[in-house]
Design goal:
310 residues; Thrombin, subunit H; six-stranded antiparallel beta barrel; single chain; alpha+beta; 2 domains
């Protein structure tokens, strides 16, 4: 038997840590649910009248969604809205006495602070893991090809089935929605930041979807030759190569052609497809903007008016 030499101060610190995690687990677990759709995942109650948050990839494409509550009660659920671009979905159940969680302001997070994940990995209901916020401001690519910005990295262990469950702080407030882990790495897991999830949730409740502006361009990020960059005084050494332009699209009407290189939009430098995606928000629909392109190595401007993607 190995004797551990732990002084009283160390024991007290361990007790405080244990007490915090225990209290949070007791506070949060009753609000966490198991979601069974095309696969199995997690979700959590965000309003007393039955709105639950989860990941888009947990429910997307499913014809039937069932939710199992903390007490074992199994209920049918309706998908209210789904935003694969942020991997957030909203489902609703009809059940009394639901206990809702609250969002923290994820912009106040600090690296190193306590992060606690609750979910149902591999069907083991209400599994609690604890760690820290490992990094902030990460980017994560979704199945749609878009990047989710401001993603939280944590070392709180996540496994298949944790997807859609809450990542909470020491006060039991939601700081993120658990979404992914890097396999076979250990301790590299990701959550959609609470501020993103809160924004998407509000839009899905009121409109059932997130709308974004649209150009009608298929492109890919490519490096630019240094001589071209220097000649035109470009701030970035890469741009978007236009692979195709959809007929009757805003880009087509603006005169964009296959083979053009997009290097700026709305006076913002464009180094790749992700930069363009970030600027194509709902608010930009119907608002004309200048697009700087290189065509036959000559720089020119086009005037384009994005429309809403329906």
């Amino acid at each position: 038997m190995i004797a551990l030499d732990i002084d009283k101060n160390d024991r007290d610190l361990l007790d405080v840590y244990s007490q915090t995690v225990t209290a949070v687990a007791e506070q949060v677990s009753s609000s966490v649910v198991r979601i069974e759709a095309s696969g199995s995942g997690s979700g959590f109650v965000m309003t007393p009248d039955g709105y639950l948050l989860t990941n888009s990839h947990v429910v997307s494409g499913s014809t039937r969604v069932d939710v199992t509550l903390h007490d074992g009660q199994r209920l049918p659920a309706q998908v209210v809205g789904d935003d694969p671009h942020t991997d957030i979905a909203l489902v609703r159940i009809d059940a009394p006495k639901l206990v809702a969680l609250t969002f923290a302001n994820s912009s106040d997070l600090r690296v190193g602070q306590l992060a606690i994940a609750v979910g149902n990995p591999y069907g083991f209901d209400c599994t609690v893991t604890a760690g820290v916020v490992s990094a902030l401001g990460r980017s994560l690519r979704t199945k749609t090809g878009r990047l989710i910005d401001d993603v939280i990295q944590t070392d709180a262990a996540l496994n298949p089935g944790n997807s859609g469950g809450p990542l909470v702080d020491s006060r039991g407030r939601v700081i993120g929605v658990n979404t992914a882990m890097i396999m076979p790495a250990q301790g590299i897991c990701f959550a959609i930041a609470a501020n993103t999830a809160s924004f998407v949730m509000g839009k899905l409740i009121h409109e059932g979807r997130i709308r974004r502006s649209y150009l009608g361009v298929a492109g890919q990020s490519v490096p630019l030759h240094r001589r071209v960059v220097r000649f035109h005084g470009l701030p970035k050494e890469s741009g978007v190569f236009v692979v195709s332009v959809e007929p009757n699209s805003p880009a087509k009407l603006a005169g964009l052609r296959e083979g053009d290189l997009i290097v700026a939009f709305r006076d913002q430098p464009i180094a790749g497809v992700d930069d363009l995606h970030r600027l194509l928000t709902e608010e930009q629909a119907g608002v004309g903007a200048s697009m700087t392109i290189l065509r036959d190595l000559k720089k020119q401007s086009l005037w384009v008016e994005p429309t809403l993607r329906e």
